[in-house]
Design a protein that fits this description.
With about 300 residues, the chain is an alpha/beta fold. It is about 55% helix and about 15% strand.
Length: about 300
Amino acid sequence: MSNDLPKVAWIGLGIMGSPMSENLIKAGYDVTGYTLEQDKVDRLAAAGGTGASSIAEAVRDADVIITMVPASPQVEAIAYGPEGILENARRGALLVDMSSITPQTSVDLAERARDKGIRVLDAPVSGGEAGAVEAVLSIMVGGEQADFDAARPVLDALGRTIVLCGPHGCGQTVKAANQLIVAVNIQACAEAVVFLEKSGVDLAAALDVLNGGLAGSTVLTRKKANFLNRDFAPGFRIDLHHKDMGIVTDAARNVGAALPVGAVVAQLVASLRAQGDGGLDHSALLRSVERLSGRPVGA
């Protein structure tokens, strides 16, 4: 390991966190990780990182602390309290929260960390599991320019499009907009798939030609196989997209922005979850359209 690279603590080794932390190890960083499931800590160790038995142990010597957990309550749980990050990290450490949470949670975290001499960035990502594995994520960041500049080399090992969007909370606001666009896009693709199939069209051929024109999108490129094969193994779970649609609809209400189509798709995501599909990939919005169209629901 190169001694001149900052020491990294990674909290949260799920679908996104595991491959992302491994990309930092490949880039030469010394990474110490902690998560609730021991087998995921073991996976990090097998990849060349160091497992920790607590948050306190993971963050104690870290220059940069990266968190990647599901939602605001988990961020608060790992950040606050005697066993949390703020009580155990050293002054001057840089905390980069890559979770997708409410903008207000990010603002509050930055404020409370400032009292401890800890710098904070909110840096949620887009690109899903494939983007995490390939290190091509889009990373939208909120915080101070100097802290962004300090974090940039680390973020460069994780993503391809890395942009400071404004002060604390702005990264989360842009991520909320991202989730709005993605959900509406998946819903439109799902409706097209059912329409095409009911019309007797060769679906694979249709999606290929559609993806070459103005209807093409990263969503369609990434999710085409999910639609064709009815493969809904989670890259990004409906449960999490449901949480994100709550964030964007609430934040939009707070600023007085109307999201008429987004509100409908938020309800479709909620209904899919109520049907027991919350653990499936968000491309499973297709199942909702199948039900509404009287088709047998795919795998």
